[in-house]
Predict the 3D structure of the following.
Amino acid sequence: MAKDSEAEIIAEARQILGNQEEVIAAGHFGLANLIIAQIAGGTAGGVAADSVWDSGTSSALGVGLGGLAAVKASAEAQGVTMKMIVAITPEQIHLLNRDTGGRLDSEVATFRRDAVDIHIANIGLSRILTLTDRPTGHAVELHGSVSWLSAQAKGDKVVLDLLAHDATASD
């Protein structure tokens, strides 16, 4: 079974939530604002590498490493891991941190499925998922993928389809 398969993501969510929770769908998502951190860090890393070594390979490596470092730092500053799990149970939507190493809380946010506004925006093969709790107005904006190149896309697609159905059912 692949590490990012839908079944593995559901199993990981069950482990975090405790096996008493029935997880009906789960996918890997990140905070949408981390895309900006990745671009900024990648740019800085590429410039730094290019100033030290005059090589396209070193610039590309600098972009990759700079982007990764910036995303990790930005995510943790916001109290989340780079890659999180959106786990859907019959009553709730859970946003869970992964691989925290004890640095961060496992549960980031929980939304009641019957009290959340759901908006899904398409940007190429990416999806921006916005969950807004109606009673409090608390919102979270997440980034997922539906790309055939992404190992996590299958779980993301299932979550997005289920939430799109929830959104139309509440209209």
